[in-house]
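FAQ

Q: What does a record look like?
A: Structure on top, sequence underneath. For example:
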C-alpha cells in the first residue's frame, strides 16, 4: 500500500488544527500507520528540506518548521500520495481549490499548515527519515473492503 509522510506544521498545531486535519484524512478513507508529536531539530529540518537548500525561502522554512512542535504522521492507501496532496491543496493557499485544507485554513505559502510527500518514492524516504520501523504499525480495518477496491 502506498504511503505518505504528513506533517501538521507549527502553525497548524498552534491554531488547534490537528484534529481537523486528521479528520479530513480519516474521512477520505486513508489509514494512519504512525504518528508522533515532536519538536523538530535543525538537523532533521535540514535533511527533510534538503531539496530546497539555496532557495530564497529556505532559511525561513527551516526557522518555521523548527519554531514549535509538529504532528508527524504516516498515512497509507491506494494512490495515497496523490490523494493526500489533493486533500492538502496547492502549495500556495491562494491557488488551493476550495474545500482543500490550504484553501480552507490558510492564506500564505509560508504558513500553509501541512506537508505531504510529493511522490511514492519520497513517501518511503520521508517516512524512513521521520520514523523508526517500530514506530509504524501495519493493520487492517473492518471497513477497508468498503474503501479499498482490492
Ligand atoms: P509543498 O509543501 O506543497 O510540497 P514545496 O515542496 O514546493 O511545496 O515547498 C515546501 C514548502 O516551502 C512549502 O510548503 C512552503 C515553502 N515554500 C515553497 N515555496 C515558497 C515560496 N516561494 N516562498 C515561501 N515559502 C515557500
Ligand atoms: Mg514538497
Amino acid at each position: 500500500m502506498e504511503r505518505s509522510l504528513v506533517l501538521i506544521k507549527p502553525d497548524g498545531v498552534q491554531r488547534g488544527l490537528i484534529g481537523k486535519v486528521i479528520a479530513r484524512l480519516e474521512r477520505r478513507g486513508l489509514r494512519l500507520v504512525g504518528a508522533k508529536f515532536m519538536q523538530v531539530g535543525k538537523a532533521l529540518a535540514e535533511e527533510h528540506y534538503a531539496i530546497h537548500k539555496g532557495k530564497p525561502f529556505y532559511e525561513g522554512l527551516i526557522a518555521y518548521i523548527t519554531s514549535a512542535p509538529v504532528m508527524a504522521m504516516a498515512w497509507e492507501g491506494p494512490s495515497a500520495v496523490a490523494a493526500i496532496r489533493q486533500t492538502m491543496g496547492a502549495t500556495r493557499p491562494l491557488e488551493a481549490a476550495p474545500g482543500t485544507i490550504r484553501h480552507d485554513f490558510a492564506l500564505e505559502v509560508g504558513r500553509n499548515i501541512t506537508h505531504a510527500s510529493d511522490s511514492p518514492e519520497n513517501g518511503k524516504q520521508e517516512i524512513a527519515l521521520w520514523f523508526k520501523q517500530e514506530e509504524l504499525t501495519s493493520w487492517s480495518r473492518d471497513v477497508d473492503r468498503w474503501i479499498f477496491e482490492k
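Q: Is there anything notable about this one?
A: The mean pLDDT is 98.
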